[in-house]
Design a protein that fits this description.
Layout lengths: L11 H21 L7 H29 L4 H23 L3 H33 L4
Amino acid sequence: MPWTKELETGIPQIDEQHKWLVDLTNKLYDSTSNDRQINSAEIGNILEQLVDYTINHFIAEETLFANLGYPETTSHVKQHNMFTHKVYSLLERHESGDDSVASIETLELLKNWLTNHIMKTDKDYIEFFRDKKVV
């Protein structure tokens, strides 16, 4: 999945974190495609990086929301929490030996997150941030 203008928020810190997520998604895709033997350690590493992403990125976004008084904070944080729960669940499944399903479901989760959350839900806060002179 290439980085495109549709993924940009205009907030450098957020965009860099989103770019990293696109790169991680592509790394996961590459590690599971082309009839490659699934490397359990590689999948585990990617899932652990995804856990780190959810912690660091969501804290950054949610701190901005709190500092600026973003009115949709509660619903946005709820989506973050659901995503985080799914990521932890996938990591647990991987750790129990379910690599192929966990990696496929992780790709689907990331694709959905990039196209629905980042390209739509995150775009909802851009105008609010512009009004606050953040963007």
